Amino acid sequence: MSALSYAGRTFVLRVDNGVVFRNTYAADGTALHYETLEGPTRGASEDVALHAAEVAPGIFVVGWVEESGMTVTHVMNLGSLTVHALWTYETGGHRVAELHTGTLETA
User: Fold this and answer.
1) What residue segments make up the domains of the chain, in order of their start?
2) CA distance 21 to 44
3) What is the pLDDT of residues 32-84, one digit of tens each?
4) pLDDT for position 70
5) Cα–Cα distance between 97 and 75 in angstroms, integer?
6) Which of 8, 43, 54, 88 has the most CB atoms in a 10 Å sphere around its CB?
7) What are phi and psi of 78, to 5 degrees?
8) What percent of the residues of the chain are helix, what percent strand, and what percent coil, each to the nearest 5?
9) What pLDDT, on the 0 to 100 scale, is given for residue 2?
């Protein structure tokens, strides 16, 4: 991973739908602790294993599966401090996908 990495850092992620997370990444980049600071699931938190790759200098694709079965994939651009996120989850008997954008702040 490049010197401009997410590993060992904490970011506040502000999503276009008003949800705000605090994401703390393990020093080796293989795990994440997230906390929901604002939004319908405020107060939720979880530790998850990450799958990650640096796809260009300072641009990382990270993904995980939550205990609920929700899948999350982020494309994080640490140069511009932006994120594109894809969430999928079960509701009403079918799988739903949501695409969001957001900003990162160093916490």
Assistant:
1) 10-106
2) 10
3) 999 999 999 999 999 999 999 999 999 999 999 999 999 999 999 999 999 99
4) 95
5) 16
6) 54
7) -80, -15
8) 0, 65, 35
9) 55
- Residue 7 tokens, joined: 């590993």
> What is the gyration radius of the CA atoms in the chain, in angstroms?
13
Q: Show Cβ contacts of residue 67 under 8 Å, excluding neighbours closer than 6 positions.
A: 46
CATH architecture for segment(s) 10-106: Beta Barrel (2.40)
- Which single residue is written with the structure tokens 């401009």? 4
Mean pLDDT of 80-106: 96
Q: Which two tokens stand for residue 45?
A: 């938190």
Q: Do 67 and 54 contact (CB within 8 A), yes or no?
A: no
CB-CB contact of 73 with 85 (8 Å): yes
User: Cα-flanking dihedrals φ and ψ of residue 85, to 5°?
Assistant: -125, 140
What's at 59, amino acid-wise?
I
